[in-house]
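Fig. S4 source data, part A: sequence.
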Amino acid sequence: MKPIVICAAACALLAGPDAWAADPVPAPTAPPVPGTYLSRLAAARISADAAAVVVKPLDGGTLTWSANEKKPMNPASTMKLVTTYSALNLLGPAFTFRTEMLSEAPVLGDALRGDLYVRGGGDPKLVIEDLWLLVNRLRGFGIREIRGDLVLDKTLFEPLRHDPAEFDGEEGRAYNVGPDALLVNFKSIAITFVPDPVSKVARVIVVPEVAGLNVPATVPAIEGACGDWRGRLKADINDPMNIRLGGVYPTACGERAIYLGALEHSSYFAAVFRALWERQGGTWAGRIRDGVAPTDARAIAVQDSPPLAMLIRDINKFSNNVMTQQLFLTMGAANGQPGNPARGGAAIRNFLSSRSLDMPELVLENGCGLSRVERISAGSLGNLLVDAWKSQWMPELMASLPISGVDGTVKSRNMPTGAAHLKTGLLEDTRAVAGYVLAASGKRYVVVAIINHPNASRGTGAHDALIEWVYRVG
């Protein structure tokens, strides 16, 4: 074997110094680019400067990509991430909202000989079942007759000017309902249509029961495709207490519902309370008015909300605007001052500053994204999601986000099932997604993508392609 070794060494020396050089270093590969995302943007005729993206690794992944990450954008409902993450930190995941019924008047026999006060605690989800429980507790206290007024104490929030038609002219739609310290059932009325093919009508069911509300018990039912069933109903809601249905309902639609929010807050509370109270055999001849509960009034019935960690699931999974605004104002109600948008925004900014989340471009109006003026950059929103991932409240925030192909606003999106926890945003000229994507590699990424463009509605497929790219390449 020795002659072979000597020969090999000698041959190498005779070949010259180049024989000892290292293997050639391959040229660095170009970083991956989401080609399908970019091509779908182009196909939708959405200009490159109208779309912002941030992709950031969280746990050792290598995929990064960004475009226009510092540009202020209208985030639509992805702004709810800023509000809910701030609320988890400022209020705490176990925070609850309390609604109280109080009085300083005596109860003689079964009559309350004075006013009944209802003090609102800003509960974002005081639904009709909760008000029913309060009414039953009131009856359980031995009260059948209220001989005074029903006084609504809403002093937790500063009186707010809210025009439900201001945003898009749809003043009767439930998504335009404004906040209130004594918000009940999202101030919405569900009018459900249930086809009865035998009788050739659709039966009309109203929930909750609203005293004094007039709605037809049935509408004629017809055969044929569902199509524009709302338009075919020819609903007239100009007078919200006298709803008219002049059209027909296609049986092929099955059971459908229209959600209305046209009544004023105090009027809505009075009508719903009266219906529940009288159902329980109670009587009340007084009037409804706003006021302040006396300091010496005693509590008769109390209702606490579920904890905040559960409430933000409804907010983020189903993009509930008025619930978010309730949180926004509650964060601003401190040191004896009522909550208002300026104080709510200041509380959030102070929290972000405490976490070194510098967002000079941030504009907050109501914290829910139902706004023409709210702004944040994709980079800032991405940094917030990175910070949330490292925080103690990460499980609570992530659990509140819609899961791709499973629930919420991304249940039917064209994304890998279960791979993404994403908040979505939708306005006429805006499409947005922001959250976390678990790639096929097992690495997790923050993804934020926002489009502000007249053709934004055509950009949903581009966002879906971006999520699929992160899942496949990350």
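Fig. S4 source data, part B ends here. DSSP finds twelve helices and 23 strands in the chain.
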